[in-house]
Amino acid sequence: MSIASKGLEGVVAAETKMSFIDGEKGVLEYVGIAIDDLARNSTFEETVYLLWNKRLPTKGELERFEADLRSRYAMPAGLEKLITSLPKSATPMHMLRTMVSALGMFDPSPDKNDVVSARDKALSILAQTPAIVAGFDRYRRGLSLVEPKPNLTFAQNFLYLLNGEMPTETMARAFDVCMILHADHGLNNSTFTARVVISTLSDMYSALTAAIGSLRGPLHGGANEGVMVMLGEIPSVQAAEQYVLDKLAKKDKIPGFGHRVYKAYDPRATFLKTLAKQLAADTGNQALYEKSHRIEEVMDKAVAAKGIYPNVDFYSATTYHSIGLKLDLFTPMFALSRIGGWAGHVIEQLEGNRLYRPDAEYIGPHDAKYVPIGQR
Amino acid sequence: MSIASKGLEGVVAAETKMSFIDGEKGVLEYVGIAIDDLARNSTFEETVYLLWNKRLPTKGELERFEADLRSRYAMPAGLEKLITSLPKSATPMHMLRTMVSALGMFDPSPDKNDVVSARDKALSILAQTPAIVAGFDRYRRGLSLVEPKPNLTFAQNFLYLLNGEMPTETMARAFDVCMILHADHGLNNSTFTARVVISTLSDMYSALTAAIGSLRGPLHGGANEGVMVMLGEIPSVQAAEQYVLDKLAKKDKIPGFGHRVYKAYDPRATFLKTLAKQLAADTGNQALYEKSHRIEEVMDKAVAAKGIYPNVDFYSATTYHSIGLKLDLFTPMFALSRIGGWAGHVIEQLEGNRLYRPDAEYIGPHDAKYVPIGQR
């Protein structure tokens, strides 16, 4: 049997109990629970527990999970030394890929990948990634690094490590919701990458490092930067309509609209839009939100009939900007959250592993001879 | 269309003009030239040129390619500083994955991936990997790092950087042949990983870093360490027969025998066997070679009829040991060589890219409700 399908579209390459997508109907569920339900009611920590255990935790289980995660917030001292000797010009995604990989060098048994060890390593990496991203950002800004606080939630802790001060409640909540929304999404490219890599029975560090490298591509996680760039190019709310219509006339894509999977409204965008509005008002970024909203109105009239709606990137850009994140930290935020999903898939793969080893079709010459160099 | 094939076996996931494998007949060709022909007559540099350009170079082209490669042997000063501040206990594959990733932070435009830029970055990474591996090994042994010499071949340069002295001709030749033999091998897991990662239009660093992570798994590149472990467990040539028969009786696998792809003699093992013998004699490792040879004889009687023959790992273990490489440097040697193949595949992918985005089959619950924590 030999089936060519470029990009493996339509080929089932894994089973999962984590997320379910119905793009036609605009449905995303984590372990059967609608994403909007989770966004409104859950937390990132609880969502990760759900993805890793395929059920919601009891109160006691959640408290223990949170305590365990929080006890691991600090990165190894050696890693902090490495981070503060990196080139300040490094882009955060190249830095993050390298530092998550580096964590494997500070682990006395990095290769262990029975399911218990794999979960343990995933929890540490998840806990330490905020310190890595925030630490590097402070270092490149010439600021000293901040110690994590084990009494903070994942979202609070990241924002505290980044800014050196406690975030407002709205900020922490909006950020937490972004983390929930990005945690898992079927067999996207980076998740598939993580499963392919672990299938050689390599290790959690190798799998997550590889996934970060995939995520940074502009056809994947890198897309959310484009929304912010567009918002920067539009001088005012009034100018938004003409900008969009001009782009559409030239058949240019509008960043943050449309999704390979969704032909209906991206279910991750609904609640985020509400939060983005509130956060923009709180932080004096109302004009930015209004620009976004105006773009959506124009797009709705122009192309919604074709199934092109705002996706999760669209309002997460406004959210991240309102929180004060620099543009090149947008994709690392995606990674922070998706580590939950990647790690869950790695564990699923380990539970029923088979090496990924597809075929290539060879389309070159055969039976060529090695011609000595003097005779070429 | 939806086809489940665990491990994607039998699914064509890419086209390539680089290598062709006929496992039944024991054929491996690079761009149509039999691997044995290349091993006997070519060099690693010429082989990489062949894989990247789909033809052998003229004398002038090869000279320019070699000169370009050699001019890039030295790693960035910042990277050398990083290497000499890593934990000495780090395993070389975790180190190599991290340092190849780190190279992206020293590149002022790491994300460029037009084909010309991608080749340029690949050439630098290929040139600098020997300095990274040898540099870390010297650092952990407490020795000072050695400056690369631009008048040396790739193989000579690596052995010189590792040992601080020029290798013998036989050593350099045997090592060069190992590099030729491991450079490409169809759509193996690490090569597939590299293509999946670059398909998001990420970058050469992300793709090669991911591939190194895949290679280190025991179901892939990590397998060659097992051969050496086995040789260490067999006290003498005389003891080899009983050791092998005992293992076979227990249905244990014999490291270095059999290959998912080859049902005939691995075409990479033929010439390597000759070289391993000569090198062992030169370096006083004759007993080791004789042990290997005896294992092959016993296996030939016992299981060759079932299509189980020595694979490339079997005699590369003896070769690497005779050269003086420590066990945990065996898989990094595979990586050094395979970077040639990985980079070639990344370039092929960029030339006709489509995002890899297979489907997952969701096998969990649906329409679950978020139950408030107090009611669970």
Can you walk through the features of this model?
The structure is a homodimer of 376-residue chains. Chain A is mainly alpha-helical. The first copy, chain A, has 2 domains: 224 residues, Citrate Synthase, domain 1; 101 residues, Cytochrome P450-Terp, domain 2 (Cytochrome p450-Terp, domain 2), CATH 1.10.230.10. Chain A is 55% helix and 6% strand. Chain A has a 3-stranded antiparallel sheet with strand order 3-4-5. In chain A, a hairpin with a 2-residue loop joins strand 4 and strand 5. In chain A, helix 8 runs antiparallel to helix 15, helix 9 packs across helix 16 and helix 12 packs parallel to helix 14. The radius of gyration of chain A is 22 Å and the shape is globular. The two termini of chain A are 40 Å apart. Strand 2 of chain A pairs parallel with strand 6 of chain B, so a sheet runs across the interface.
- The number of domains of chain A is 2
Report the count of strand segments of chain A.
6
| Strand arrangement in the largest pleated sheet of chain A | 3-4-5
Q: Over all CA atoms, what is the radius of gyration of chain A? A: 22 Å
Distance between the termini of chain A: 40 Å
The major sheet of chain A is characterized as: 3 strands, antiparallel
CATH topology title of the largest domain in chain A: Citrate Synthase, domain 1
Corresponding CATH architecture of the largest domain in chain A:
Orthogonal Bundle
Oligomer: homodimer
Strand content of chain A: 5-15%
